[in-house]
User: Fold these one by one.
Assistant:
Number 1:
Amino acid sequence: MGGLAFLVAWHKRAAIESCLSNAKVPVYAVGSADYTQAIKPFNYRVTFNPAAYAVPATVEHVQAAVKCGADNKIQVTAKSGGHSYASHGLGGEDGHLIVDMKNFKDVKVDIAAQMAVIGTGGRLGDVATALYNQGKQAISHGTCPGVGVGGLTLHGGYGLISRSKGLTLDNLLEATVVLANSSVVTASATQNPDLFWALRGAGAAFGIVTNFKFKTFTAPENNLVFQYFISPNSASQLAAILTAIQDFTRNAQPPELNMRLFLSAFTTFSGVYYGSRADFDKVMNPLLTNMGIGGGFAQVTQNSWLNTLTSFSNGPLQQATPYDTHETFFSKSLMPSYLSPAAIDALSQYWYNNARNNQRSWYLLFDSHGGNSSAISEVPADSTSYAHRNATFKMQFYDRVNSGNYDSTWMPFLNGWVKAITDKMPEEKFGMYINYADTSLSKEEAHEKYWLGNYKRLVAIKERVDPGKVFEGPQIVGS
Ligand SMILES: Cc1cc2nc3c(=O)[nH]c(=O)nc-3n(C[C@H](O)[C@H](O)[C@H](O)COP(=O)(O)OP(=O)(O)OC[C@H]3O[C@@H](n4cnc5c(N)ncnc54)[C@H](O)[C@@H]3O)c2cc1C
């Protein structure tokens, strides 16, 4: 940083610190042990230095923090679980005022109404446990228990009951939001419906949500968790497996079946079936035959709801404080409506010729997302700003190192894999999932890929509710 830029940054930091202090907003002082811990991102590859770090305990504190940011022309960023792949919860760039929602983690169930009010700072494992402990309730959400319910919900929220119950944002009834002008409003289907539409897919750009009201469902028990261990040994074998899964997901996958193919050094086909073993076999056996893995090694076990979640959580549901789990990686996504035979072939060739030789800890995850009977695809495309209703798969490309830094010269590995696929389908508008934020996208690419045809309407709403761009970031709406 040059001398003048340093001086400007120093003055801004002093001004925001003094404003927060006068307004009695709790903070982690820059340089303190709490601050140093709190700015550790989930993805160690992408680190930032905020201008100030607020830790509000009340909605009034959030309002005061937003006002301090706006008055001092410092961009304001909400952070919930801090799991953004691009560290968007730390601003996605240096110099933001971070508003950490960690104190907003109450979960209150209204069992008669099957509704729950959930603070946005909670982590999924804790939220799921609290919902279950209050009348065995549940919502649809992602698999990693450390992810924040705030970022997950405001940009999607896919997990192993989403094909049955919809995305997390599909179950949202209401949100309490602090806007850029520091007022507090409710967003719902009947109050501020445009804002409610924008929050469900692009939330970070529109305000700080302090709590959500969700509709809940009674947690299903006796769920069949399945995992098949498979080892494709040629590009054509992988292509056959993917073709079979795609055909099945689009045309024959029942809503009670949720599944994913995890392609890696060890490949698994896994998921959850919410039904009986006899029905599961009836549904699954023809698919396994078409995939050519009828005789593969399998595990199928019956699980309670919390054990079902734990089966996919890589650890206990309840999360330690302070949260201190991190990885170092680069990631991309694709949300294709369909993969043509040529695209599947290119994907499989790339796997055979490039990925298999990569010694880092990479994977490509295919989540069955859409298709004829998916609860996600049944939601009308224009009813939320989430733009991927017709995506058959949610594909996540992930390349990680288990120690040391991730060298930027490795990024072409995943960029090349995505290009190999998209080059074969020039007519397809491939969407990408902002919850798997991709740091290699320019802001224009990010806007187009994350929000497709919804972007224009989002910008119009942004201009109305945040004309001064108090909530900014390198990839969010209006940036
Ligand atoms: C290990 C891991 C597993 C994952 N598994 C899944 C999965 O199974 N399914 C899935 O769909 N996704 C999954 N994700 C992606 C995850 O949903 C996103 O990274 C999500 O945005 C993280 O939310 P967060 O609150 O933890 O992150 P943060 O970094 O805190 O926030 C992410 C974004 O949301 C904004 N934001 C957060 N809280 C608020 C708020 N209260 N008001 C306004 N804006 C806010 C932030 O400003 C930022 O732009 C996973 C991520 C990781 C790292």
Number 2:
Amino acid sequence: STGQAARPLPVGERLRGEISFRNVDFAYGDETALHDVDLTLRAGQTVAFVGETGAGKSTLVKLVARFYDPTSGRVTVDGTDLRELDLAQYRHRLGVVPQEAYLFAGTIRDAIAYGRPEASDAEVEAAARAVGAHDMIASLDGGYLHEVAERGRNLSAGQRQLIALARAELVDPDILLLDEATAALDLASEAQVTHATERLAGRRTTLVVAHRLTTAARADRVVVMDQGRVAEDGTHTDLLALNGKYARLWRTFLGETLPEDAGTDARDGGPEAVGARAV
Ligand SMILES: Nc1ncnc2c1ncn2[C@@H]1O[C@H](COP(=O)(O)OP(=O)(O)O)[C@@H](O)[C@H]1O
Ligand SMILES: [Mg+2]
């Protein structure tokens, strides 16, 4: 505890959503997960975090959700240390889309309204339309009253993700935390989920743990994590030009997904990185 009283957020007032990590270290017991992370995310920016398994991406996002507090250093939102904010009020301003959203047995409507059970049917539908999930829902037997089985196992991975994104939209958060599902989606679902993610990220500050590099390529900024540290930081284009870790990941991705010759964009990047920083 910081010994300070939790600061209530002004009622009805929104966060601007500027997030700073200041010399943040974090360890799970003896296991260091983040080391000396220093980053400022501008209000409204969509930032994709990429890197190998265990690099610290999810931990970084969990610190913003205040599931944990830093071992040293601080995380601030709009300049205020998260430890000084009233936790319940702060969490109300967050949209969290976990890797596998848990869907309880119930209707699609209830699954979307999970964070705001008092929402009207019209509000639920508006949220679904806003992320482009309405047509998928309308195609289900019973539409919004379609019965979801426990864990959503009668839905496809893509359908579950669209519902999770509509659920986040309904909360209308100021800050969006998204851990992309690793499950492979068919091409049509992939396009729908990408589109829904973009709509949801909109102008709100968004941290997305990107397992699909197409998400990173569309983000305003990409942060490459490596063994708990920020290794590279810049736009997709900057990082291709930097020709480091991100460029390698991208070339691998293109090699896996596209026939030969389609990767020329990545290979055109020269060494003259402009806005990127390798750390
Ligand atoms: N709950 C936990 N308890 C102990 N160690 C953890 C826990 N969660 C993550 N770690 C460790 O912290 C490091 C960072 O993990 P994580 O943030 O999940 O990485 P990423 O999301 O990039 O795969 C890894 O070494 C991982 O093993
Ligand atoms: Mg992770």
